[in-house]
Design goal:
Blueprint: E1 3-6, E2 12-13, H1 21-33, E3 34-35, E4 37-41, H2 47-58, E5 62-66, E6 69-73, E7 85-86, H3 91-102, E8 107-111, H4 122-130, E9 134-138, E10 142-148, E11 156-159, H5 164-174, E12 181-185, H6 192-199, E13 204-207, E14 210-213, E15 219-220, E16 223-225, H7 230-242, E17 247-254, H8 261-269, E18 272-279, E19 285-291, E20 299-300, H9 312-319, E21 324-328, H10 341-351, E22 357-359, E23 362-367, E24 375-377, H11 382-392, E25 398-402, H12 414-423
Helix pairs in contact: 1-2, 1-6, 3-5, 4-5, 7-11, 9-11
């Protein structure tokens, strides 16, 4: 599907932001691991989350949708799958299930689409193999992944990659292991699992620079109300910051501090953003108002990258409209997302007539730049599609976003909301 977009003279409204993708994945999996029936309200209905639900159903978990509620009947013993577990495009599904299935007495084959088959999985297999699980990977790093569950034991492990997916996989393997697991190193990625595990009766101790997970745990069912995804909301925040006269109100958005990197960077750039926290358990949630303002270039530090990794394509687009230099370093993880996002950012900005200096681990953009409409190849990456759809709203002329249907991975209603906002 190709979407054609033109420069917009206005952007106003209250877009409905779909549920948080990270919380939706974790809610389904923790519900499946818990005794009793868990309820998830406003579960994100995206392709990635459907991949997690599909895999869990194949493993014998009952998941039933009733209006805005999703009911998960947890089970201690899961069924050995009779078919491959198709994770679609979802790295979260595949990586987290590697950790969960490692402690189950069954074998499974995890696979996915062409993009997922290129993403590294040794980073999960290596630590969990030390716990006693057995994995077989393509070329020792890539899917399909064969998992052979086994009795696990706790380990001390220092993470070298700031990845919430890897961290979650280890935590969920650790709760079924004998003994205690200690995680240290780069554990400062998003902390949804650390917050949600106690909500389901789990035990995890959070210390400065360390996580301690008790083994042989039993989880118990609970209810979660999924807030709007802050990574998705960031696209509207960025657009409203640069389109003259824009004003956007975003309601019921997750305000987890580990997810506010993009909001904080936009504020540093001079964006007019106000927000209030309306509830705090098990996750902070609130409302955000954004109005247009002149922006300045900023330096985004490597230490900030884990809190805004998914929003960097959007921030690159916004940086083209800011006065001065914006620099990002320490973002080499973007090379192994749904696409090589650093390369995709550079290619698309240059197609639109912009200039960008690309590094192995980031980029530098000097603005403001005058962009022009272009043919954008998304590489089937939802973040690239949405970021350059926002760019099209302030570029001269018409832009075409190819394979735009890939936004369904995280935001199926993105283009419908965009049309409403520019015509409000």
């Amino acid at each position: 599907m190709k979407i054609k977009l033109e420069k917009s003279k206005r952007l106003q409204g209250r877009p409905k932001v779909p549920g948080d993708k990270s919380i939706s994945h974790r809610g389904l999996i923790l519900g499946a691991l818990s005794q009793g029936t868990s309820e998830i309200i406003d579960l994100l209905e995206s392709e990635d989350v459907q991949s997690t639900a599909r895999c869990l159903r194949t493993l014998g978990i009952s998941i039933e949708r009733k209006g805005s509620s999703t009911l998960i009947q947890g089970r201690r013993k899961w069924n050995p799958p009779s078919i491959d577990l198709d994770c679609g495009n979802s790295g979260t599904t595949l990586r987290v299930l590697m950790g969960v299935l490692a402690g189950k007495q069954l074998s499974a084959k995890l696979t996915g689409d062409a993009s997922l088959m290129k993403r590294p999985m040794k980073r999960v297999a290596s630590p969990i193999s030390k716990m006693g699980a057995r994995f077989k990977l393509q070329n020792e790093n890539f899917p399909p992944v064969m998992v052979s569950g086994a009795p696990l034991h706790g380990i001390d492990y220092e993470m070298s990659v700031a990845s919430a997916q890897v961290k979650t996989a280890i935590i969920l393997a650790a709760i079924s292991a004998e003994g205690e697991t200690r995680l240290s190193g780069t554990i400062n990625s998003r902390d949804h699992t650390e917050r949600l595990l106690p909500h389901f009766g789990g035990k995890i101790e959070t210390l400065p620079g360390q996580l301690i997970i008790s083994g042989s745990q039993t989880l118990y069912s609970n209810q979660i109300k999924v807030p709007g995804d802050p990574s998705t909301a960031a696209f509207w925040m960025g657009a409203a910051s640069v389109i003259p006269g824009a004003e956007i109100v975003l309601e019921n958005i997750g305000l987890n501090p580990t997810r506010l990197g993009a909001l904080n960077v936009l504020c540093r750039m001079g964006a007019r953003i106000e927000y209030e926290v309306t509830s705090t358990e098990p996750e902070p949630v609130g409302n955000i108002m954004v109005r247009s303002a002149p922006l300045q270039g900023v330096e985004i530090l490597a230490s900030e990258v884990p809190s805004l990794i998914d929003e960097l394509p959007l921030l690159a687009v916004i940086a083209t409209q800011a006065h001065g230099t914006t620099t990002v370093r320490g973002a080499e993880e973007l090379r192994v997302k749904e696409s090589d996002r650093l390369n995709a950012i550079a290619v698309s900005i240059r197609k639109m007539g912009g200039a960008i200096e690309l590094f192995e681990d980031g980029f530098q953009i000097v603005g403001p730049q005058k962009l022009r409409g272009a043919e954008i190849e998304t590489d089937l990456d939802h973040r690239i599609a949405m970021a350059f759809s926002i760019a099209a709203l302030f570029a001269d002329g018409e832009s075409s976003i190819h394979d735009a249907e890939c936004v369904a991975v995280s935001y199926p209603g993105f283009y419908a909301e965009l049309e409403t906002l520019v015509r409000a």
